[in-house]
Task: structure prediction
Amino acid sequence: MTAEEKIDKIDICGLMPDELTEAFKELNEPSYRAKQVYGWLHKQKAASFDEMTNISKKLRSALSEKYRVTVMNPEKVLVSGIDGTRKYVFSLFDGNVIEAVFMRYHHGNSVCISSQVGCRMGCTFCASTLEGCVRNLTAAEMLSEIYRIETDTGERVSNIVIMGSGEPFDNYDEVIRFIRMISDENGANISARNITLSTCGLVPGIIRFADEGLPVTLALSLHAPYQELREQMMPVARKYKLPEVLSACSEYFRKTGRRISFEYSVVRGVNDTPQHARDLARLIRNIHGHVNLIPVNPVEETGYESPDRSSVEQFRDILTDEGINATIRREMGRDISSACGQLRRRHIKDAGVCTD
Result:
């Protein structure tokens, strides 16, 4: 099937249960058929209508005339020899590629997914944004990241982090659809409490998200305790100032009861001094949350360098002494390490793909 033919057909994988039921009514099929197909797509992870063996051949043919099944194939997979972390580059039907990461922890398997092809936020420490945002991912494509990884590994995913390429609130509707579908009991049934959504601080998105009734953990990409420095690292901070962003985070906690995770990429000589740590503690002291310290992954185009381990530990200890819960993110897949988006960019360069 060509890309043009796929575009012309409705992506059945992105239909929620009630929408699928309505679609089957139009086909003069009973509602239980919709539930069967939904189960095939989201429990059995069927890659085609032909796999749906308890559906008649006539119905499968009718479905294939109008609908398509989103299946993303891994173009490249890097596997860590240390801890089994797997980094994927997936190809999309239109020729674009995205990145996702599978990680094993004692509490279960986690997958970090992308929500856009690229990103337009412009954060200076992230490789994902260097070519800008090509397009949003659909809910079906985000679901497929999870499903293909589960199929490839033969292991269930229990935790999801929407922290790969893209700003989730820049693709709000599809991200919300994805969360509702991945947590639906008739599908993959991954608890929303096991989902973390990371944002650069798009205030309208945070406020709107607080009213969705989803017990998702909100992670704020903070990265600096001062407005001026944050603007240098994150251009979006020029639009949404720190007081406004932190106020929205407080409102999110008030409405959901979910503590905030403050993501702080530690960059040598930029935001890694003891004074930075003390000022960060003062900034967030009255917000119920914790700090996730992330030694920055070097990005060739920015010249940023990762700090030594002792300085990151000192930073954490200062926060702890100031009464702030802080942890240093465990380094997964050190032998295949790359900054967010670097694997995708390397694949594009190797393939000679134009991203203009």
Remarks:
- The first helix runs from residue 3 to 8.
- Residues 274 and 315 are 6 Å apart (CA to CA).
- DSSP finds twelve helices and 14 strands in the chain.
